[in-house]
Specification:
By secondary structure, the protein is an alpha/beta fold. The chain contains eight helices and 15 strands.
Length: about 300
C-alpha cells in the first residue's frame, strides 16, 4: 500500500520507523506540524528527511492547494500518529481507504487531549489505546483496533505512557496496516452512552488539595508526573511534586509530619504522602530532603493555602 504518515514528536517518528522497517508499504509523504520558532526540529520531520521522504507542514488542511498536493500522492491510506491539529474530512478522505488515527485511551472513555493523565488521576486500574476512523467529532469515530494496558497502583503518567502504551502502540502499527491490506478492516461503533470527555490537564488541575483523601492526592501526583506536575505552596512559594509514596497516619491536612532521608511526609485526609522529589520555583528537580533543608521546612510546616 501507499501510505501518508501524519504526526509529530517521538510517537510519530517511531511509527514511521516501524513502517519503514517492516518494508511492506511505500510511504509516499510525511505530514507534521509547522516549525515553531525557538523549538527543536520535530523528530518525525528529522526521521522523514533522513529517509529521503517528502515532508509537508501546512498550517491547516482547508487550503485547496494543500488538498491538491495531498491528492497528488495517490495514497491508499493515511496513518495519523499523534496528531494535534484538526484534519477535516476533505483531507482525511483523500486516500482511497481513508484515514486511521491513534488515541491513547480505550475509547469511548477519555476522549480529549490529556487522555492518559485523567484515568490515573481518577484511580483507574486500566487504560489502553485505540486506532479509530476519525470524524469531525472529537475521538468519536468507529474503532479499528484496541489494546488494554494495566495501570499499576504506583504507576506514574510517565510509566503508563513510555513503558506500556507507547511500545505496545508502535508494535501495533504494522498490524493496523495489515488489517487494511486484508480488504475488510473491522469497524466497531463506539458506545456513546459510555463516553467520557476531559479537556487538557493543566496547571490549575494539578493543584494539590491536602484536605482530600490521601489516595486522591497520590493519584493526582502520579497522574501529573512528569506533566504538568502536581504542585503546592509553602509560605507563598510554589513547588512541584513528582515522585512520592503513600503511608499511614492521621493529623491536620497539609502539615509536615516528618522530614527524613526518605522524604518530606505530609498529612492528607486518612493518610500521608511521602514527597521524594520536587521542583521548587526557579530550580531543577531535586530530592525533597534537599528542598526541605534549603527552605527551612520541618515538622509542623503547613503546605498549601
Amino acid at each position: 500500500m501507499k501510505l501518508i504518515v501524519m504526526g509529530q514528536q517521538a510517537f510519530g517518528k517511531a511509527a514511521l520507523e516501524r513502517i519503514l522497517e517492516a518494508g511492506a508499504d511505500d510511504v509516499v509523504a510525511v505530514y507534521c506540524a509547522p516549525d515553531r520558532e525557538g523549538r527543536p526540529v520535530d523528530p518525525l520531520k528529522e526521521a522523514a528527511r533522513a529517509s529521503g521522504l517528502p515532508v509537508h507542514q501546512p498550517p491547516n488542511f482547508k487550503d485547496e492547494a494543500t488538498l491538491e498536493l495531498m491528492k497528488s500522492h495517490d495514497a491508499d491510506l493515511m496513518i495519523m500518529a499523534y496528531v494535534t491539529i484538526f484534519v477535516p474530512g476533505a483531507a482525511r478522505d483523500i486516500p482511497r481507504m481513508g484515514s486511521i488515527c491513534f488515541h491513547p485511551s480505550l475509547l469511548p472513555l477519555h476522549r480529549g487531549p490529556s487522555s492518559i493523565n485523567w484515568p490515573i488521576i481518577g484511580g483507574s486500574a486500566r487504560t489502553g489505546f485505540s486506532w479509530f476512523y476519525p470524524t469531525d467529532g472529537l475521538d468519536e469515530g468507529d474503532i479499528l483496533l484496541q489494546k488494554e494496558c494495566e495501570i499499576g497502583a504506583d504507576d506514574t503518567l510517565g510509566d503508563v505512557y513510555f513503558k506500556k502504551i507507547f511500545p505496545a502502540a508502535i508494535d501495533s502499527v504494522v498490524a493496523v496496516c495489515n488489517l487494511f491490506r486484508s480488504g475488510s478492516p473491522p469497524r466497531i461503533q463506539q458506545d456513546d452512552s459510555k463516553a467520557t470527555y476531559e479537556s487538557w490537564c493543566r496547571k490549575p488541575d494539578a493543584l494539590i488539595d491536602w484536605s482530600k483523601p490521601a489516595s486522591d492526592v497520590y493519584n493526582l501526583i502520579r497522574g501529573t508526573n512528569p506533566q504538568p506536575g502536581a504542585w503546592t505552596t509553602v509560605a507563598g512559594s510554589e513547588v512541584k511534586i513528582y515522585d512520592s509514596r503513600r503511608t499511614a497516619g492521621d493529623g491536620e491536612p497539609g502539615r509536615v509530619t516528618a522530614v527524613t532521608e526518605s522524604g518530606v511526609e505530609v498529612q492528607a485526609t486518612g493518610g500521608r504522602i511521602v514527597v521524594q522529589r520536587v521542583r521548587p520555583a526557579g530550580s531543577g528537580k531535586i530530592p525533597a530532603v534537599e528542598w526541605a533543608s534549603a527552605s527551612g521546612i520541618s515538622p509542623g510546616t503547613v503546605l498549601g493555602n
